[in-house]
Amino acid sequence: MKKIFLASLLLILCSYSFESFDVKELEKESILYASKKLALNYSGKKAQWQNPYGNPKPSAILEKTSVWLDSYARSIIPKKGKTVIETLGDPDLWKVLTEIGIDGIHTGPMKEAGGIITGKHTPSIDGGFDRISLKIDPTFGTKDEYIEMANTIHSFNSVLIGDLIPGHTGLGADFILALLNYKDYPGLYDLVEIDEKDWRLLPKIDKNDFAKNLNFNEVDKLYKKGYIVGKLQSVFAAGPDKISNWDATKKIKGADGKTRRWVYLHYYNAGQPTLNWLDPSFAADRLIAGDIMESLGVLKNNGVRLDANGYLGVEIVPGKETAFSEEHPLSTVATNLISMLTRKLNFAKNIGGITYQELHLSIADIKAMLEFGADFSYDFNTRPGYTHGLIAEDADFLRLNISLLDKAKIPPSRFIHALQNHDSLSYGLDEFKGNPDEKFEYKNKEYTGKEIADSILKDDLSVIQKKTSYGPCATFVELCALALGYKDYYNMTNDQKEKVQKAHQLLTFYNAMQPGIFMISGWDLVGAFPLKPTQIKQLLEDGDCRWTNRGGYDLLGTSDETMSPSKLPKAKALYGSLPKQLKDSTSYASFVKNMLTARKKYKINLATQIKILDVKNSSLFLSLYKLLDKSYLLVALNFSKEKLQEEFDIPQIKFKSAKNIITNKKEEKSFFSSKINIKLDSFEAKAINF
Predict the structure, then answer these.
(1) Are strands 67-70 and 303-307 parallel, antiparallel or unpaired?
(2) Contact 55/346 with Cβ under 8 angstroms?
(3) Does residue 356 sit in helix, strand or coil?
(4) Domain endpoint, select from 367, 402, 433
């Protein structure tokens, strides 16, 4: 469907003469214009001097909120007669969510996306991550409904987290004005005017096309001419229609009467032109500032998620044909500016100015971006560890990843520990792929980064066979079923369903018992299975298997609809609606509720990680934390299908008592000894306080 959307937009652009644009009217539809108007509320006003902003404030945030629902607006099946926004702001929903222990929500992108020309709109080609406006997408509801949703969420002492997309826009008014060379709009993008004498270096454009992707030979020629920085380090979303990250446009007559051909950069799809964060106009900075002002000042968000913020800089490398384009220091600088402005313009009464980044990065880059930038980073580092742990019944890779974070002195309290989100499982494995020749101690031997990455991917992709350039695709219920060998997961026996639920609870337990933010998705709460390819043929045409993970769901079970307003079919669910689950003490939602009750009581969100303990059985995972009351918490996980028992010694601690914080039952121990005996059933997890 992405290809169809993009092809339709390009046809519209070609069939409509650029000379016919009313640039003044088009300007009024642009984000940059809206940003300029919004700035009048803050520039020269006392409003921007009410908050400290130079440093992240994770501890202050964690004292107020630490358990969030990860929502995705396109997957929400609304209550009968209600919009998506009204459904997410329904007091009945928040009574249930807060009963479970959830005190925040990330909504996913909800502003207009896709392409626009003289009022005609082509839908998003990337699930809402090609923003073209600061207006709320009418598919989800209205601005007034959004503000009312924010008021409701705040009335439940919960936070609302929106989305910021600092890397690119869609093919909206801003991009069209840039191509028309209007005012400083060209400064928004990594966009280069090609001299007419060099048009011969560009591909010929069919009359029905707006632009065409450059092959590597064409990229190299433009690089040698000094127009562009050359090939990038990676080509995301590569395919038959995308060889490089550069596209050349057809001839376009500008607002000044001059005809030009342009080349523009896009890290992802051609419909997502990359913003230029170091142009003298600082237009991109102003555009993103406008999005922050709208989200916080108008829509009452407590914070924003930063999308793909590791790709905000691109630089020529003299003597090389490949540019410096990943983990560039400009990405860190831009992240700092975004995060500081978000903190500076915080007007939330309780807690606000929150930023978190959701992108797999090297540990060094995460550390740099967390120093003065985002409050939290999404935990893509240990996720491959615990998913591999389940698949291989071996927690050694999880231990390795945690040890690397510990060595870098990045505590777990700086992470969003989450289950499924809108994306793939994101096996970036950046620390290993980025250091292919470095030796890592793994399984009592030394292996190179490449050897480890290749081994993990080989093992896990043999089980999760759906994959995209972003990583393997699966819902967590699907992952658990596949790990247990249940390939026909749509037709499992009751016994198989119980085992899948137990494995799912194990992974949930790992994340929820981590200091920091715990985030759980709507897909996890209902136990969503993936959509069948036959249900979403058009969406899968370009090979993006992430759409199989994004089935529709109805948390309250109040709708008879079989499809979301965004045309995503309702996913088959293992658990069902939350009200129904909460009536069953053995359900997944009840398990989550009990676990979060203990998490809050013992303030695990604010705990300090002491060490990951050595074990004899690689299926066993043991981590030790110090709680605020100076007592200790031992988290024990069994990644095996078999029962296990192991005695271990923590010499620095003498046990007086040991209590399971979930069941409130005492654990076996040697009185006033440093030894403790752990017994775990298959896929069982325990959190023991002593």
Answers:
(1) unpaired
(2) no
(3) strand
(4) 367
pLDDT given at position 267: 94
Amino acid (one-letter) located at 363: I
**Sign of torsion over alpha carbons 344, 345, 348, 351:** negative
CA distance 161 to 301: 6
Nearest to 641 by CA among 431, 391, 396, 377: 391
Q: Which of 232, 254, 405 is nearest to 323 (CA)?
A: 232
| CA distances, 80 to each of 87, 145, 328, 559 (Å) | 9, 16, 47, 6
CA-CA distance, 324 to 317, in Å (whole number)?
6
Gap between the Cα atoms of 251 and 249, Å rounded: 7
Going from the C-alpha of 488 to that of each of 482, 485, 569, 577, the distances in angstroms are: 9, 9, 20, 23
When divided into structural domains, the chain yields a total of 2
Whether pTM > 0.85 for this model: the answer is: yes
pLDDT value, residue 674 = 79
517 vs 311: CA distance, rounded Å: 24
Q: What is the CATH number of the domain that holds 654?
A: 2.60.40.1180
Q: End of a domain among 318, 334, 367?
A: 367
Contacts of 141 (CB under 8 A, 6+ apart): 83, 84, 85, 86
Asked if residue 194 belongs to a domain, the reply is yes
Distance (Å, rounded) from C-alpha 50 to C-alpha 75? 37
Strands 675-680, 659-660: pairing kind: unpaired
Which DSSP helix (H) or strand (E) runs through 286? helix 283-293
Domain residues for the domain of 336 are 1-66+103-367
Cα(529)–Cα(488) distance, integer angstroms? 11
Question: How far is residue 50's CA from residue 345's CA, in Å, rounded to a whole number?
Answer: 8
Q: What is the pLDDT of residues 551-579, one digit of tens each?
A: 999 999 999 999 999 999 999 999 999 99
Q: What contacts 95, CB < 8 A, 6 or more positions away? A: 156
Q: Which helix (H) or strand (E) holds 460?
A: helix 449-461
Reported in sequence order, the residue ranges of 159-235 that DSSP labels E, i.e. its strands, are: 159-164, 191-194, 211-213
The one-letter code for the residue type at 577 is S
Give the CA count within 13 Å in the CB-facing half-sphere of 402. Answer: 24
pLDDT surpassing 50 at residue 15: no
- The closest of 271, 399, 320, 297 to 2, measured between CA atoms, is 271
Domain presence at residue 646: yes
How many Å apart are CA 108 and CA 420, to the nearest integer? 13
Average pLDDT value over all residues in the chain: 94
- Burial class, 50, CB count within 10 angstroms (exposed 0-12 / middle 13-18 / buried 19+): exposed
DSSP annotation string for 299-334: S--SEEEEESTT----B--TT-SB-B-SS-HHHHHH
Contact 46, 245 (CB under 8 A): no
**Residue 139's closest CA among 85, 79, 72, 71?**
85
d(CA 346, CA 335): 17
Amino acid at 485: G
Give 50-59 pLDDT, tens digit per residue. Answer: 999 999 999 9
Q: How confident is the model over 331-345, as a mean pLDDT?
A: 98
